[in-house]
Design goal:
seven-stranded mixed beta sheet; 6 helices; mainly beta
Length: 714
């Protein structure tokens, strides 16, 4: 008899299992067996006669075979699990199952079925069974033989979880039994469904690499043109990308610059990498604690032009330049607008790291290729960056029955995403997390970026490519370090109290309430809108990008904490104009600018501008327009003013009481959180009341609108 095996992914702990013939050949003395198939209860429970608790839709398996286009290694048995649609999630088992009261206790039975699939799967939550209880699953094969497996009998195998697959049969049963007198109230979740649509390795002659044909074109810190990628922007429209999109706020771009000077020359080495903000175990960070980033060790191990290596971790702290950037991502799919991201000021430190960093070494271990970084700001200040701190579990009993997503910055470009649609499996204690990307490929610069399971928990960090790695490959394989093993080495820092889990969390409003009300509370010491006093300090803009001729012409003096980028879209000649630019990191001008005789350009780099400061947030814009203006030239309320924070652009339209337009500002730009003058009311009649409409946008193009009226008094 040709038996098919039960494919159990994601560390499903094996219990006692047995394959027998017809149901009526089972004897009650064979233990442990599912209660539902004991002949004593056949008049009470007949599994085959039950209506399915969930029946999948009908699908064309050949079409799914092409959609989920990925080769499989023979060691994975060639099974390709995928979803025809997003099936139900997070169902409490007892609430959706059949219930049977027996003389010995209570049985709950759940029946999963498919009409067209090659098999069916159920993803279970992580389960620790109460002692005395029993959980089983079983299915009938084509020849009516039975496969079953039981957990919990006499206290054996109480812990389990993962995705259960029945191969070659269209019905799968899960049974949970509680004996009479069990005092514990217990239930568990069915996390979702798998639909098995193929049982063979796909045709390796077909190029299945998925691409939206996007190239590296918008990231300011990318390598020179020619390093083109086929990874998707996180904001490209795709239902699979959309599921993980929010986790982009947990990703950071890491850039390391090392200059080696010799007697005859200097060599510059630039390293592009990625990392993930990790939340702290249990309740997360206190406001006086320093946040942490997880990345890979090999970013700090540079191969020189002569083939030797430089270990940056052995150098003094300031021997090389470290840069961390967040929000380094396009706001729309494949935008051509140059993106800089926001730099985190200060110098991070390395708390601990693994001892493996050379993937070409036979002794290389992905689970030892890690580095845990500590940020220079306490959470109270760092919360204004608006990043997401990713959740995790120390023991990955359930990994990702619905696939996984990997984030990173290939070649220093804006953030991209790679997706593996199929169930991800990590054998117990295995140091690698194998990935077979359906969307995107593994590229340099992705190293250190997080791998998230379907539950959006960190399950690994990008480490190496196995083969492929270019858009033309039909097998885009990569491997990531297993977070479960990495956790053991960083537990002292991220989970000192052994909570063994962390939830994803965005920290906000750690400063006093009056620091978030969009009003300058002078009595409370604020020197600007929601800044100064016991709020965060008032500050200049993080970056300044002048991308039109008008922006350049009207900006005689431009300050930015980190970078100023002057790149008007059309050529411009500067004559008899004085311009002043001051930044803490870098000032760049595009090639289509010409400075003629008579033009004065003062450009200054002051590193002090990046110290002890916090960037503007990208929160929902907050605006509050005054209800009076007194344009009498005394310098007090001569302009209509607006309090605001997180606003980068606004437009105001003013009308009289008959609806006639008196003023339209067009789009105006704001470079700092402050009270700003938005309208000079000199031409308006004293004593009159006028209406206004103000539209304001933040750095993510989120818009708010305020309407109201104001009085003109002289």
């Amino acid at each position: 008899m040709n038996k098919r095996i039960l494919n159990i992914f994601l560390q499903l702990l094996i219990g006692t299992s047995i394959v027998v013939g017809q149901q009526n050949s089972l004897e009650e003395e064979i233990i442990p067996i599912p209660i539902s198939i004991i002949s004593k209860y056949k008049d009470v429970i007949n599994p085959e006669s039950l209506k399915s608790n969930f029946l999948s839709n009908s699908y064309n398996n050949d079409s799914l075979y092409q959609e989920y286009n990925k080769d499989r290694d023979p060691e994975w048995n060639g099974f390709i699990g995928g979803f025809g649609e997003a099936f139900e999630q997070d169902m409490w088992f007892k609430k959706v199952s059949y219930k049977f009261e027996l003389d010995t206790g209570t049985v709950w039975l759940y029946k999963a079925a498919t009409l067209t699939g090659k098999g069916v799967g159920i993803a279970l939550d992580s389960i620790t069974l109460p002692e005395g209880s029993q959980l089983s699953y079983f299915y009938y094969e084509d020849d009516e033989s039975l496969f079953y497996e039981t957990h919990g009998y006499e206290g054996v195998d109480l812990t389990l979880g993962g995705t259960i697959f029945s191969s070659g049969c269209k019905e799968l049963y899960i049974e949970y039994f509680e004996p009479k007198g069990l005092l514990t109230k217990f239930d568990f979740k069915i996390e979702g469904w798998n639909y098995l649509f193929a049982e063979k390795v796909k045709d390796s002659s077909v190029n299945y690499a998925s691409s939206d044909d996007s190239s590296l074109k918008s990231g300011r810190w990318r390598d020179s043109p020619g390093n083109e990628g086929c990874n998707n922007d996180i904001n490209c429209y795709n239902t699979k990308i959309a599921h993980w999109r929010e986790m982009a706020d947990a990703v950071v771009y890491i850039k390391l610059i090392y200059v080696e000077n010799t007697a005859s020359s200097s060599e510059i080495y630039i390293v592009h990498g990625s990392g993930v903000f990790l939340n702290k175990g249990g309740e997360g960070y206190a406001k006086d604690e320093y946040p942490m980033i997880l990345t890979v060790r090999h970013l700090f191990h540079i191969k020189k032009s002569n083939g030797s290596y430089i270990d940056l971790t052995s150098m003094r702290n300031r021997a090389y330049t470290k840069q961390l950037r967040i929000d380094y991502k396009n706001d729309v799919c494949n935008s051509t607008r140059v993106i800089s991201g926001n730099r985190i000021s200060g110098d991070f430190s390395i708390l601990t790291m693994g001892n493996s960093y050379n993937s070409h070494d036979l002794a290389y271990s992905a689970s030892e290729d890690f580095a845990l970084l500590q940020l220079p700001k306490k959470m109270e200040k760092f919360s204004r960056y608006g990043v997401l701190f990713a959740g995790w579990e120390s023991v990955l009993l359930i990994n990702s029955p619905r696939g996984a997503a990997s984030f990173g910055h290939p070649y220093g470009d804006v953030m991209k995403i790679c997706i593996d649609n199929d169930p991800i499996s990590i054998p117990p204690g295995y140091e690698y997390l194998p990935l077979y990307f359906d969307i995107g490929v593994s590229q340099k610069g992705m190293s250190g970026g997080p791998v998230f399971n379907y539950q959006k928990e960190v399950i690994g960090i990008n480490a190496t490519k196995v083969d492929g790695g270019t858009c033309g490959d039909n097998r885009t394989r990569a491997s990531a370090g297993n977070f479960e093993l990495i956790y053991d080495k960083i537990q002292t820092f991220i989970d000192p109290n052994y909570k063994c889990y962390a939830l994803s969390k965005a920290y906000s409003n750690l400063t006093p309430t009056h620091c978030h009300n969009c009003i300058q509370d002078v009595s409370l010491g604020e020197t600007g809108v929601d800044c100064g006093g016991d709020c965060l300090p008032c500050h200049i803009p993080t970056n300044a990008n002048l991308q039109t001729v008008n922006e350049f012409i009207r900006s005689n003096s431009v300050n930015a904490r980190y970078d100023i980028n002057v790149s008007p879209s059309t050529a411009i000649e500067v004559n008899n104009i004085t311009k002043e630019f001051k930044a803490g990191d870098e000032i760049t001008f595009s090639n289509n600018m010409t400075f003629n005789k008579g033009a004065t350009l003062n450009a200054k780099i002051e590193s002090s501008m990046v110290e002890n400061d916090t960037p503007r947030s990208c929160d929902t814009p907050c605006i509050s327009v005054a209800n009076v203006t007194t344009p009498n030239g005394d310098g007090i309320y001569d302009y209509l003013v607006m309090s605001q924070h997180s606003v980068v652009m606004y437009r105001i339209v003013v009308k009289d009481r008959w609806g006639k337009k008196k003023y339209d500002s067009g789009n105006q730009y704001i470079l700092e959180d402050a009270v700003v003058n938005i309208y000079d009311a000199q031409s308006l009649s004293s004593g009159a009341v006028y209406t206004y409409i103000v539209e304001a946008w933040n750095c993510s193009n989120e818009k708010v609108t305020e309407t109201g009226s104001f009085h003109v008094i002289r």
